[in-house]
Amino acid sequence: MDQIIEFARDNLILSGIWIALVAMLAYSFISPLLSNVKRVDNHGATLLINKSDAVLLDIRPLKDFKAGHIVGARHVKPEEVREANFTKLEKFKNTPIVVVCAMGNLAAGTASKMSKQGFTNVNVLSGGMGAWQSAGLPVEK
Prior knowledge:
The protein is of the alpha/beta class and 141 residues long. The chain folds into 2 domains: 2-33; 36-140, Oxidized Rhodanese, domain 1 (3-Layer(aba) Sandwich), CATH 3.40.250. It has 7 helices and 7 strands, in the order ααβαβαββαβαβαβ. It has a 5-stranded parallel sheet with strand order 1-6-5-2-4. Strands 3-7 form a two-stranded antiparallel sheet. The protein is elongated and about 65 Å long.
């Protein structure tokens, strides 16, 4: 124990970096547990669509959306997402929503913004369209 304290004292920058990394790792595990936004896989999204009439929101650029999207998905422009302008979705506040992006990373921020605006059941498709297409699930153009 004395050696650890001595090392930390002699190497403040390394010790600070180590503490920051541990804190970031802990945050990455804890923050999803505290979030109102849930992550769903392809199976979970399919169940939400078929059993709960979930609304699919595709936040990818229009070019990517037109190249292929999940059947029945609605497109939300990237500028509307940046401005958190979800007024055209007000009627879906209490409906399950699945937010889809290319790889599943950007959708979490959008879903969080929606949750803060009062949307009660917002989900993120894990892996995004990449996971959906690689599973061979239906897309339309």
